[in-house]
Design a protein that fits this description.
376 residues; alpha/beta; 14 helices
């Protein structure tokens, strides 16, 4: 992987990097599920895509004061493929004395313990397929060389540049988006993966992540055996068609500009994650990040941190960071929270209408795609 992509010197800043209160309240929510489920004696914390380990650091610090929970915690398990990040996570979290385990795939996570799973800004980073409805059916949006290079070099891709929509992004790079000339078995499978894709009008574009579908299904299967999960990401209860973008140093850049040097991302279709779950009724929400944090008591925690601050400058930093997390014009509404539990709807999702996902989706699909202009 390229250099550190997290923090002020990287490509983006995540909520745990902004304020410790975020991770602490996630930890309290996970603890509440453990209490509600009768204090299981063997617990594993599982994080998908843990970055530098900041979120898990805050979770462990917030929950270690609960002695029964701490004594029940048998391991912290990460789904992480980067050796560089594994080393950073180990350096940050060894101090807690809890066994740390790493796996490349969620399939390898042990299923013999009560599992508390968190996935924060994980699904947005998974690969997507972009499909466009033409008069001849769905075709996949591919990446090829620009038209002059295609004529000269006879690209091996089976593409038809005459089908390219004027809305497809063109850049100064030799790379470009173009439509496949024919349908493919992969395209057919992806369209069949959700009933929402079946009757879309010509011209529709959808971003589909089969990797997200598979992993969400595995999260549901893991939680069904005992546990709970919290998924936090930007997106909404619908599919998107134009959210694929690149960030470098906190700015949106062309996706083909200096390939390999930017963070690539796409909005998360939470309805698709819900459809992927192994059993109906496992998912609860959505709640905006703002609503989740306010209901979990972030204002109370903010006041406590401000009282303990050493000076006015630190107090202002704490207040500013918390306001940023719940900003109704920014992160507070761009990020969504979904719970996964096999039992009754958990707090603070009691007032969230699960079937509202479908109702909001029907309205949202008629509007233009929305995507944050800055990945915080």
């Amino acid at each position: 992987m390229k250099g550190d992509i997290f923090g002020t010197k990287g490509d983006f800043i995540t909520s745990p990097e902004i304020s410790q209160a975020f991770g602490e309240l996630v930890g309290i929510w996970l603890l509440s599920r453990w209490l509600e489920d009768g204090k299981p004696s063997k617990v594993q914390l599982v994080e998908l895509g843990p970055g530098r380990g900041t979120l898990m650091d805050d979770i462990l610090r917030a929950t270690r004061g609960f002695k029964e929970f701490a004594s029940s915690l048998t391991s912290v398990t990460f789904v992480e493929t980067s050796e560089q990040l594994r080393k950073k996570q180990k350096e940050k979290l060894d101090k807690y004395g809890v066994p740390l385990n790493w796996h490349d795939r969620i399939d390898d996570v042990p299923q013999d313990a009560y599992s508390l799973v968190v996935a924060h800004e994980f699904f947005d980073a998974l690969p997507i397929h972009v499909l466009q409805k033409t008069e001849r059916g769905f075709r996949e949006v591919l990446i090829g060389l620009d038209s002059t290079t295609l004529i000269k070099n006879r690209s091996p891709l089976d593409i038809d540049t005459t089908l390219a929509s004027p809305t497809l992004q063109r850049t100064s790079s030799r790379l470009n988006f173009t439509l496949s000339a024919e349908s493919s078995p992969v395209t057919s499978v992806l369209i069949a993966s959700s009933p929402r894709f079946a009757n879309l009008p010509t011209g529709s574009r959808i971003e589909v992540s089969p990797a997200s579908f598979k992993i969400a299904h595995q999260v549901g299967s893991l939680v069904e055996k005992g546990g709970a999960a919290l998924i936090v990401d930007y997106g909404g209860p619908r599919f998107f068609g134009n959210s694929f973008r690149a960030f470098r140093k906190h700015k949106v850049v062309e996706v083909f500009d200096e390939p390999g040097s930017s963070d690539l991302t796409a909005n998360v279709d939470f309805a698709y994650l819900k459809e992927a779950m192994s059993q109906p009724g496992l998912c609860h929400g959505l709640l905006s990040q703002r609503d989740f944090l306010l209901k979990m008591g972030i204002e109370v925690r903010c006041n406590a941190l401000m009282r303990a601050a050493v000076d006015d400058e630190r107090r202002k930093d704490i207040e500013h960071s918390v306001k940023r997390l719940v900003d109704p014009l920014g992160m507070g509404t761009q990020y969504q929270v979904m719970a996964v539990t096999p039992k009754e709807k958990p707090y603070p999702f009691l007032e969230a209408m699960d079937n509202g996902m479908e109702r909001r989706e029907a309205v949202a699909e008629k509007s233009a795609d929305s995507a944050p202009t800055k990945k915080d």
